[in-house]
Amino acid sequence: PRKLHVKRSFTPVLPMPEMDRVGLHSQQRSTSRKLKA
Q1: Contact indicator for 27, 12 with CB cutoff of 8 Å
Q2: What is the per-residue pLDDT across 1-37, written as a single tens digit (0 to 9) for each?
Q3: Cα atoms in the Cβ-side hemisphere of radius 13 Å centred on 5
């Protein structure tokens, strides 16, 4: 799934499915902490 790999890194701000959400969850967690702080 090479297309999925590109889409995953290509849709970080777009509402992705649960699968992509899990990968972004880690990145968003760091951003959420910064925004909350």
Answers
A1: yes
A2: 566 555 555 555 555 566 566 666 676 677 766 666 5
A3: 2
Residues 6 or more apart from 12 whose CB is under 8 A from it? 24, 27
Q: Are 20 and 8 in contact (CB under 8 A)?
A: yes
Residue whose token pair is 């970080």: 12
Q: Dig out the tokens for 27 from the structure.
A: 């990145």
- Residue 20 CA to residue 34 CA, distance in Å, equals 21
* Whole-prediction pTM: 0.20
Dist CA 29 CA 1 (whole Å): 26
